[in-house]
Design brief:
The protein folds into two domains: 134 residues, Aspartate Aminotransferase, domain 1 (Alpha-Beta Complex); 256 residues, 3-Layer(aba) Sandwich (Aspartate Aminotransferase, domain 2), CATH 3.40.640. Helix 4 packs across helix 11 and helix 12 packs parallel to helix 15. It contains 15 helices and 17 strands. The chain has 419 residues and is of the alpha/beta class. The protein starts with 9 loop residues before the first helix and ends with a helix. The structure holds ligand 7TS.
Length: 419
């Protein structure tokens, strides 16, 4: 039964004008199967505010040209817009320098870049790379490919039943063969927020560099890469209310200087001869070819949008939604939440009796509710919990408490039909 107490009413909880925020997201205002859409698949990708949609349109209507090469005015406009976006990203994560911000397709490409380039620089046969049980496949496969190629080994930090990593086991995995620790900040599948600051400190005590996969952290909390002191931090723009096809590799400048290029082509060179070529300054050394200029500009607009709301309000509101939804979901008979870490992002994975998650997802969709059902690209983690799939709801600051109530009604309907 619903045990929600009085002070959790929507008006008390927001301090965020959710209705006016929702008006900024045109996609949310539509019917699916005759019901108002409830979009609870924000960990997969977030919806875009008007300001992002409009700036992409403006870019193609008024500015479009290639960057860093033309002598004409439009090329200057495009270059300025692209480089302004880089400054917005730098400021957003408090990087020390623009040279540390590389525009790429997304988290996946950023991790592959590090595996390839840092791998070539620092990792050899019999070396070890540490990841965790909580990783998305994007932070598993690039390391497996590297290990297969060079004969290095992958070590995995185990996870407790509550979804938290075993930090003692983590410490004991680090030794003088450990060359890199690649760790997710937040689990996309079960929402655990890892104590990355503490884990980075531990790694640094043994002189080991750390890559943090921030894909699921940047939309929910303020990130300061200098405070974290990680060597690499990666994220995708589309999970941050920005466009698809644009993402960020942050890396310490000293490392980027040492690392060989990932891809070759235009933009990344200084002088080319058939005998030998030299490479461009940072960050361009890692941006071969024409970049996703409009995507970068859109990401800049998304950052402006989020910054105007402010993380203090975003984080507080989303945590209230998470608490509310957790309590209400636990009141559904037969429902089990997978992952109950003390520190969680607004992501909840669950199973309901032995009803298949895909059936749950399909029935909810008929009620206009978009959730994710499956292994969430975290198959080893699912296996750890003895499951092949879960249902996942993941919130953004445009979601509401009444949407959670409709989810609960939908799940009760699922139980009536299939339970
Ligand atoms: N790392 C994490 C933690 C992720 O959640 C994802 C995408 C990625 C990396 C890859 O990001 P991409 O933008 O390069 O694809 N996660 C999800 C998800 O949970 N559902 O769909 C995509």
């Amino acid at each position: 039964m619903n045990t929600i107490v009085a002070d959790t009413s929507e008006s008390n909880q927001t301090q965020l004008d959710v209705e006016s925020i929702r008006a900024d997201f045109p996609l949310l205002d539509q019917k699916i199967h005759g019901h108002s859409l409830i979009y609870f698949d924000n960990a997969a990708t977030t919806q875009k505010p008007n300001s992002v949609i409009q700036i992409e349109k403006d870019f193609y209507e008024k500015i479009n040209a290639n960057v860093h090469r033309g002598v004409h005015t439009l090329s200057d406009y495009a270059t300025n817009a692209y480089e302004n976006a880089r400054e917005k990203v730098r400021d957003f994560i408090n990087a020390n320098s623009l040279r540390e911000i590389v525009f790429l397709k997304g988290s996946t490409e950023a991790i592959n870049l590090v595996a390839s380039s840092f791998g070539q620089l620092r990792i050899s046969k019999d070396d070890e790379i540490i990841i965790s049980y909580l990783e998305h496949h994007a932070n598993i496969i690039p390391w497996q490919l590297l290990c297969d190629r060079i004969g290095a080994r992958l070590k995995v930090i185990p996870v407790f039943d509550n979804g938290e990593l075993d930090l003692q086991a983590y410490e004991s995995l680090i030794n003088n063969r450990t060359k890199l620790i690649a760790l997710t900040h937040v689990s996309n599948a079960i929402g655990t927020v890892n104590p990355v600051k503490e884990m980075i400190n531990t790694a640094h005590c043994s002189g080991v560099p750390v890559l943090i996969d921030g894909s699921q952290a940047v939309p929910h909390e303020k990130i300061d890469v200098q405070e974290l002191d990680c060597e690499f931090y990666v994220f995708s723009g589309h999970k941050l209310y920005g466009p698809t096809g644009i993402g960020i590799l942050y890396a310490k400048e000293s490392l980027l200087n040492e690392m060989p290029p990932y891809q070759g082509g235009g933009e990344m060179i200084r002088v080319v001869t058939f005998a030998q070529s030299t490479y461009n300054d940072l960050p361009y050394k890692f941006e071969a070819g024409t970049p996703n200029i409009a995507g970068a500009v859109g990401l800049g607009a998304a950052i402006d949008y989020i910054t105007a709301i402010g993380f203090s309000r975003i984080t507080r509101y989303e945590q209230q939604l998470l608490d509310y939804a957790t309590k209400k979901l636990l009141s559904v008979e037969g429902l089990k939440i997978i992952g109950q870490a003390k520190n969680k992002a607004p992501v909840i994975s669950f199973v309901l009796e032995d009803i298949h998650p895909h059936d749950i997802g399909t029935i909810l969709d008929h009620h206009g509710i978009a959730v994710r059902a499956g292994h969430h690209c975290a198959m080893p983690l699912m296996e750890r919990f003895g499951l092949s799939a879960t249902v996942r709801v993941s919130f953004a600051f445009y979601n509401t408490f009444s949407e959670v109530d409709r989810l609960i009604e939908g799940l009760n309907e699922v139980r009536r039909m299939l339970g």
